[in-house]
């Protein structure tokens, strides 16, 4: 049973992970519950496409995590974010010999169904990052007889898990047994199901329905990097060049339009750091990455998705919804993301 579940995890990760319009860099996550206590989930810092039966995931005792959220008393003045991360780390049963962590989102994976796909689909995020998006996607899915759970923006971690748990608990018993579709504002898409094939099919269907309603045709742009040396790469992705040229993009642009956490982690933090890994030449419109190929690729994919979402929102005449200043500051100081960036750096040496 456990072997079958791990094989399903690998297959799901590989299938979703090969689509850079669904996940970028180390973003997104997939989990499979192996039995009544154990759950396999992609490890923080890994790409979905890096998950194999031997590595790239963590096995946790999710019953302990779920029990924590079932019984936590939020009236106390605790640091619940830190406490919940500690609970997740202490729940790890494999691997025991290194410092891999489950995603900070392991909480909501624990309280959802057997199979959970969390993607950063650009199509879902066009709507998740626009004021009109909720009404549009609710109408699109309701026409197909699909119910949507829309989650207002909440910082990833403890409070987001509690909100998702609360929303699931309000469903009637019949709906609790069905597969669930959740869109998190300024974040991404979640598919939760007790059926392996259904989880994958619904994820594909939701994305295709959104694309059809928005009139998005043709292939998603491909990324291309030119190697200058071992620690320097240039973007040769045409879509990125054209966007920068048309918008006259400077670093200020990214602060003005903070759309979702992965943008802040992969782009903004690397633009404004003392050892900046991203250079945008205002004259040539070129983007240069001063880092390894693996990290440059993760940033390039994130940059492409970010520009693509903004262009589509504007093309459709929608209104961009950005994160609040408090939310962006929270992510910038997020210990879990510091860990993820550190791990990515170690993996790409």
Automatic annotation (TrEMBL):
Residue ranges constituting the Class II aldolase/adducin N-terminal domain according to the UniProt record: 8-214
Coiled-coil regions listed: none
Transmembrane intervals: none
UniProt-listed InterPro entries: Aldolase_II/adducin_N, Aldolase_II/adducin_N_sf
Pfam entry (one): Aldolase_II
Name recorded for this polypeptide: Class II aldolase
Species name: Caldicellulosiruptor changbaiensis
């Amino acid at each position: 049973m456990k072997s079958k579940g791990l094989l399903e995890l690998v297959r799901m990760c590989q299938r979703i992970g090969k689509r850079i319009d669904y996940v970028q860099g180390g973003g997104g996550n997939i989990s499979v519950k192996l039995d009544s206590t154990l759950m396999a989930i992609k490890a923080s810092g890994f790409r979905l496409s890096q998950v194999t039966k031997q590595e790239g995931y963590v096995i946790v005792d999710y019953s302990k995590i779920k029990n924590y959220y079932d019984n936590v008393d939020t009236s106390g003045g605790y640091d619940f974010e830190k406490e919940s991360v500690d609970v997740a780390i202490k729940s790890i049963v494999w691997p025991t010999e290194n410092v891999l962590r489950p995603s900070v989102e392991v909480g909501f994976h624990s309280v959802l169904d057997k199979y959970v796909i969390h993607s950063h689909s650009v199509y879902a995020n066009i709507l998740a990052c626009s004021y009109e998006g909720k009404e549009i996607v609710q109408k699109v899915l309701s026409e197909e007889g699909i119910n949507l759970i829309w989650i207002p923006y909440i910082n990833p971690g403890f409070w987001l898990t509690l909100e998702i748990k609360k929303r699931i608990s309000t469903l009637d018993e019949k709906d609790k047994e069905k597969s669930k579709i959740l869109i998190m504002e300024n974040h991404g898409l979640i598919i939760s199901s007790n059926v392996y094939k259904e989880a994958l099919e619904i994820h594909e269907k939701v994305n295709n329905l959104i694309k059809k309603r928005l009139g998005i045709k043709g292939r998603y742009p491909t990324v291309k990097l030119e190697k200058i040396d071992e620690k320097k790469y240039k973007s040769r992705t045409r879509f990125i060049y054209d966007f920068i040229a048309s918008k006259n993009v400077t670093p200020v642009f990214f602060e003005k339009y903070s759309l979702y956490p992965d943008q802040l982690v992969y782009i903004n933090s690397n633009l404004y750091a003392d050892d900046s890994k991203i250079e945008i030449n205002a004259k040539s419109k070129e983007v240069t990455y001063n880092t390894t190929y693996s990290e440059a690729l993760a940033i390039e994919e994130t940059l492409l998705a970010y520009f693509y979402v903004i262009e589509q929102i504007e093309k459709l005449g929608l209104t961009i919804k950005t994160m609040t200043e408090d939310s962006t500051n929270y992510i910038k100081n997020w210990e879990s993301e510091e860990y993820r960036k550190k791990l990515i750096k170690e993996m790409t040496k």
